[in-house]
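Pilot study result, target chain (334 residues):
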Amino acid sequence: MRVAVLGAGRMGQRRAHLLASDPRVDEVVVGNRTRARAEEVARAVGGRAAGLEEALDTGPEAVVVSLATANHAEYLLRAIDLGVPILTEKPLAADLEGTWAAVAAARDAGVAVQVAFMRRFDPAYVEAGRLVASGALGTLYHVHMTSHDRDVTPLEYLPGSGGIFRDLHVHDFDAARFLTGREIAEVDARASVRAHARFAEHDDFDTATVLATMDDGLTVTVSGARHDPLGYDFRVELFGSADSVATGLGPRTPLRSLEPGSPGAPPHAYEGFLERFSAAFAAETAAFVDLVAGRGPNPCPPEEAARAMAAAVACERSVAERRPVALSEVEVAL
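Predicted structure:
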């Protein structure tokens, strides 16, 4: 099969490499606004370079949208017009209305759109979800999520990022639904700029805390930070009446214990998401090829992204109005 990868940045490059290594993929077409960058990535994977429009005109059997956030919606809709399966990085669009419009477009066209929420494919997350679904953890008492970036978000990324809730915590909102099998009913969020003024300049925050209540009353807390001096720290802790488990907890977890005899901070903490979730990205991309080949279901339809985006929008309203916000307040009717 021929797959067009739109975007030659970090994610586009990773997707192109993963696709090129899959024996079911005959050709990878790398499309990018900057032709030289497309040619560089295409050479590295043994593919073909093209402009964005040219890549869509090569007759691909599938499309991967790995462009900058601001360009997702435009090229997602163009790919939908081709009538082929699509793997798109989050978000579908910059806002909730645009997100639901993309959902409707895919639905009306009968096109399978897989949204890239890679944590659904991380081995530890998959096992945690299995334990919850099987009842092995008993009654869930509480879920706590830690989402701390290692490096401060680059200044040039901030204007189009969408903000901490839409860019960073949208993954947590999807993971909360994926792990528990429940819907988020309400959020109570707070956010601030603690150390990095660049965020305030773009009406954004470098730290956030969310208390989410699921539709069965389960509480989920989220700790978010745009900088962690010890490393990239993304964990989930699930506490139940029969067992308690964690994902992302191990010898590379960037925490320094003060208990006597503890080894201190890990010498090789994760540096970023591409390293921490490497196995997840590989499994996610392979699942997309399965989808294209007709050998597997869509593991993350666009409606899933819309529900996570709704939680992010509700958090923004909660911060602005300093009150809990029910997701029903931000629902968009089709």
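One observation from the pilot: The chain is about 35% helix and 20% strand. A full batch analysis is planned for the follow-on phase.
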